[in-house]
Amino acid sequence: MASFSRRQDLERHIQLFHLPPWLYCSSPGCKWRGGRVDEYQRHKNTHSAPNFPVEEQACQIYDVKLILGLIKDSAGSDAIMTARRIAVDLVKEKALELGKQEWLEDPWGSPGELRNLAFRVNCAHEIHSHSVVCHGSSH
């Protein structure tokens, strides 16, 4: 069980454990996807392409802040599940736009997701006025 007294910590938790990756590498042939801007910054340094996008917004699969806002504004207990379904649909939409068949088959980007799959299934959140408690199998 984890408790989050800061909204920023809760949002990071949701991004990493409950939503599919929202950033991708636009370098031809690269399959990298991730959910943290600092990881994207480190990853882009592995490429020597001169026109590599500097801003993460140019490599967004979907707007994670919009999804986090939906969760924040929702009073329902299934807000994270609903937001997760929307995010997966947005990943699939971007996959069609970019011709990324592997995203259609695996919108979660398996390697990072497999280690957290059991947690994703069992995690439930209690949102209180001053804190959020996540009940899950591990963190």
Describe the structure.
By secondary structure, the protein is mainly alpha-helical. It is built from 7 helices and 5 strands, in the order E-H-E-E-H-H-H-H-H-H-E-E. Strands 1-5-4 form a 3-stranded antiparallel sheet. Helix 3 runs antiparallel to helix 4 (79-98). The longest helix is centred in the middle third of the chain and has 20 residues, at 79-98. The chain is globular and about 45 Å long. The model is unreliable at 112-122 and 126-132 (pLDDT under 50).
- Give the SSE string: EHEEHHHHHHEE
The number of helical elements comes to 7
- Report mean pLDDT, rounded to a whole number: 77
Specify the helix fraction band: 40-55%
The global form is globular
Number of E strands: 5
Give, in spatial order, the strands making up the sheet with the most strands: 1-5-4
As residue ranges, the low-confidence spans are 112-122, 126-132
State the distance separating the first and last CA atoms. Answer: 8 Å
Describe the protein's topology:
Blueprint: E1 2-4, H1 7-18, E2 23-24, E3 33-34, H2 37-44, H3 64-73, H4 79-98, H5 101-105, H6 110-114, H7 117-122, E4 124-127, E5 132-135
Antiparallel strand pairs: 1-5, 2-3, 4-5
Helix pairs in contact: 3-4
